[in-house]
Specification:
- Helix content is 4%, strand content 44%.
- It is mostly beta strands.
- Strands 2, 4, 5, 6, 9, 10 and 11 form a 7-stranded mixed beta sheet that branches. A 4-stranded antiparallel beta sheet has the order 1-3-8-7, with no helix packed on it.
């Protein structure tokens, strides 16, 4: 599965951006999709995920209430709406897809990088203070 992340850019603190994750030639609605980010010199960390079966969403504490993950099956795209951006949100953002699996109800599963089978190339988000 090829994933294409887009929508990054430069924004002032407090501003908003919407990232997109597309899967050309695939039905993205049949995959669990997650967003991760990696800041310079730091480990890649979980941001948000949407489950394939029922669109249940999961968020890291540091983005909860500010970021929203959603899926538009008609456009075959998963979005990450980011509001109230902070300088600490500056990072390369990656989308990832996981093979659909049943009975995966734990936050720890969606938070873990090893749960995902395919990764996009990343899009840079820079938040200026």
């Amino acid at each position: 599965v090829q994933l294409q992340a887009s929508g990054g850019g430069l924004v002032q603190a407090g501003g908003s951006l919407r990232l997109s994750c597309a899967a050309p030639g695939r039905t993205i609605g049949t995959y669990t999709v997650g967003w991760f980010r990696q800041a310079p010199g730091k480990e890649r960390e979980f941001v948000a995920a949407v489950r394939w079966s029922d669109n249940e969403s999961y968020y890291a504490e540091y983005v909860k209430g500010r970021f929203t993950i959603s899926r538009d099956n008609a456009k075959n795209t998963v979005y990450l709406q980011m509001n109230g951006l902070k300088s600490e949100d500056t990072a390369v953002y990656y989308c990832a897809a996981a093979t659909p699996r049943y009975n995966r109800n734990s936050y720890n599963y969606y938070e873990s990088r090893v749960s995902y089978d395919w990764w996009g190339q990343g899009t840079l988000v820079t938040v200026s203070s």
